Amino acid sequence: MWNKEIEACEENESLLHQEPLCLFVFRDQILPRIKLLPVTGVRIKTLQDLTLSIETYERHFTFLTIPSTIRLPKVPISQLRRVKELAVYVDIVTIDGLNDYYAFKHLFSVPDAIDNNELLKELEFYVNSGFESKFLMLPTFVITDSTGTLFRGFLTPFLPAGTLSMVIRDLHPDECNQLPLFPIGSPSSADQSSPCVLNGAPKLAWHIRHTWAIEVVTAIATLHGTAHCGDIKLCNILLDRSGHCQLIDYAPITGYTSKYLPPEGVEYDDNFSLPEGFVPKFAQKARDIFALGLVLWQIASEVSNFSRDFVEPPVLVWRGSGEGPGTEIPTWFRDVVMRCLTKGAEQRPSAADLLVLLTGET
Questions:
Q1: What are the phi and psi torsion angles at 262 (to 5°)?
Q2: How far apart are CA 142 and CA 152, in angstroms?
C-alpha cells in the first residue's frame, strides 16, 4: 500500500517502479523479524522516525480447479526445473525427461483467488478461442499440483532470440534507450538537437522488416476476426527460431501500455495512466490499430523503445536510407503507418485492410 505520510520511502520506490523491495532492506530489517513458516505475508510501513513498522500475517495457498474445457497435456509442478527468471511472473524451465526449454507463466507471490482466476481466464482464452495462426503464441502444457487437478500456471515454448524490442536494441547498442516522441505541432518536434536520435541506416534489409510487419498484422487480423487484441507493443512480439514473429500476451485485458494508447475516449490523469479499474469505452479494434501503427513504425525504423507522455498522435522519426538498395523505407509504408495513427478512430483502417495493403506491395 502506498505510504502517503512518508513519500520518499522504500515501499513507495518499490511500488512506483514495480520492482521487488530492496534486497538489503529485506535481508537486514525484515527477514530477522518474521517467521518463514507457515507461509507469511508482510505489511511494512516507514514511520516518521524512518524506522520500519512490520506486521506479519499467515497466508494460505488458494489454487483453483482446472476446468474440463482446458484440454492441454498436464505436468505436475514438481517435474519442472527452474533455469532462470525471464520476467516478473515468468521463468525459463525444463521438464524432467525432456530437453526443450519453456517459459513458465505463473503467479508472482502466494496467490489469492483473484490473481489465480485472472491467470486461469487468460489460459482459457488462449485454449478455447480456436485461433489458428503460426504467428500467435499458444500454450503447450498446463501446470498442476501433485494431484493433477489444481491450476499452477502454464507453459509456452521458450524462444531464445527474445522480443523484437531486444533484437532491435542489439542492432543499435549505442543509441538512446528511449527515443522521445513529441505531439504534432509541438516546438520540440522540430528540434534536431536531442541526443536521442536515430543514428545511421537500418541494419536489416527492407524485405525482412516488411515480412515482420506482415506477420504482425496477420496475427492481429486473426484476433480481430473473433475478439479484440490485448496489450499490443513491440516487446510482446517474439522472434522464433526460423526468424518469424509470434505475438504473446494477447488475451483481452482492461489495462494497456499508456504510450501506445490512442487519444480518443480516455480520461488521462497527470501521470498519463489509466485510473484504477477504468475500462476504456472506445472501440477496441481502433485502439489496436493505433498501437499497431506505432509497432509498424518501430519495426520499419528499427526503434527498440520510445517515450510518449501526451495523448495526441506523435510526430514520427524515420530512420534514413542505407547506402545500398533494399534498406530504405518506402513512402507507401509510411503512409500506411500514418493512416493507423489518424486521430479519428473511425478513419483508421481495419487489420484486414492493412493486410491487403502490406501484401499488395513489395
A1: -80, 170
A2: 8
